[in-house]
Design a protein that fits this description.
Layout: H1 7-10, E1 11-21, E2 29-30, E3 36-37, H2 42-45, E4 48-53, E5 56-65, H3 81-93, H4 98-101, E6 107-108, E7 118-119, E8 122-128, H5 130-133, E9 136-137, E10 143-147, E11 161-166, E12 174-176, E13 179-188, E14 191-194, E15 202-205, E16 210-214, H6 215-221, H7 226-229, H8 254-263, E17 268-269, E18 271-285, E19 299-300, E20 305-306, E21 317-325, E22 331-343, E23 349-356
Antiparallel strand pairs: 1-18, 2-17, 3-4, 4-5, 5-8, 6-7, 8-16, 9-18, 10-11, 10-17, 11-13, 12-13, 13-14, 13-15, 15-16, 18-23, 19-20, 21-22
Length: about 350
């Protein structure tokens, strides 16, 4: 039997925010040592590295420079790969594309000029995998630990570990083309240790799943030793750091520096966020409704008389399933009750069907 809904009275729509651990299997915190680097061609490595967990891509890391420094090739006729990366991400995340024309890009208080904003010529970028982040990354809950060296004594020297988070719990977001933008600051899980007005480590774009880090700010905290600055390879991993290698040679690999700093770090805490819509449909069977059945066993003979005489004046039915159909009569969803509901002219029934998208 079919009954049409009264949309105003029989349905309720609710929007909820659901968060979950970002990493495969709903894991929220992952040690840096759990990340592996996926196999990429030499051409791909000149642009980015993929960090995997359980053989699945989770994060991509890269390096960009507004002038093309740190590229394999950069001259009057060839745009360096780092310049292409810088322009692509800046145009994607910021509203003032003309800044690039004027030689200005991301600007923040990176600690190199007191409390004044400084144009960031070099940036490290971490991009989240869309499949893992769902609608966006959850602000105010994440922590990234980067590890390296600030002396020539190795990665575990004093001051070589840095915890970074966003300040969404205490500072209103700035508007960006791809949703809100927050500051990346020193701290953990949204708790700020050093305010962005003193030192900003980058910008966080939760809707885009992007973190853009100031190379100046990172290198001042974790520079690495002099040899590592010009190599950036695993060969000097004990003295790794984030000071930029601005030479234009094929051996230059700044993207590898942020990769190694993550892998040597104590871990990353990250959560995905998803907007879900919950539709509650109240299927109402009033006293005069659904007291007869279309089941052939309910009837007898060609005249379709009620088979059992004791049910002629008091028919009994049992509701065991509820189906939702569209205007064309096509079944969209079917729900089976845990136990049938007895229905007759002396009773009413309400079954709530919940659909979540």
């Amino acid at each position: 039997m079919i009954k049409q809904f009264n949309i105003a009275e029989d349905t309720i729509t609710t929007q909820i925010t659901v968060t979950n651990g970002y990493f495969d299997g709903g894991v929220g915190t992952l040690a840096g040592s759990n990340f592996s680097t996926s196999s990429l061609s030499a051409t791909q490595k000149s642009y980015y590295y993929n960090l995997q967990y359980n053989s699945k891509d989770h994060l991509s890391v890269t390096y960009g420079h507004i002038l093309g420094s740190g590229s394999a090739v950069e001259n009057a006729t060839t745009e360096g790969t780092t310049q292409a990366i810088y322009k692509q991400f800046f145009n994607f995340t910021e509203p003032s594309a003309e800044n690039l024309r004027d030689g200005a890009g991301w600007s923040m208080v990176d600690g190199t000029n007191g409390a004044n904003n400084v144009t960031q010529e070099g940036v490290y970028i971490i991009a989240a995998e869309r499949l893992q982040m769902k609608d966006r990354l959850n602000p105010g809950t994440w922590t990234i630990n980067l590890s390296g060296s600030n002396t020539e004594q190795g990665a575990f020297s004093s001051g070589s570990s840095l915890n970074l988070t966003d300040d969404s719990k205490v500072v209103n977001a700035e508007s960006a083309p791809f949703g809100p933008r927050y500051n990346i600051v020193e701290g953990s899980a949204g708790t700020v240790t050093t305010a962005y007005t003193s030192k900003t480590y980058g910008f966080f774009y939760p809707d885009a799943g992007l973190m853009v880090f100031s190379a100046n700010a990172l290198s001042s905290s974790i520079p690495g030793d002099a040899e590592y600055i010009t190599s950036g390879s695993d060969a000097t991993i004990l003295n790794n750091g984030l000071a930029q290698d601005l030479t234009v040679t094929e051996a230059t690999d700044n993207a590898s520096k942020i990769r190694i700093a993550i892998q040597r770090g104590s871990g990353i805490t990250l959560r995905s966020e998803e907007q879900q819509y919950v539709y509650d449909y109240f299927c109402r069977a009033k006293a005069s409704e659904f007291n007869l059945s279309q089941n052939p066993t309910f009837w007898s003979g060609s005249a379709y008389e009620i088979r059992h005489s004791d049910m002629v004046t008091n028919p009994q039915t049992f509701v065991s399933e509820v189906g939702l159909m569209d205007v064309n009569g096509d079944v969209l969803a079917v729900g089976r009750l845990s136990s049938p509901i007895n229905k007759n002219f002396s009773s009413e029934a309400i079954v709530k069907v919940r659909l979540t998208y």
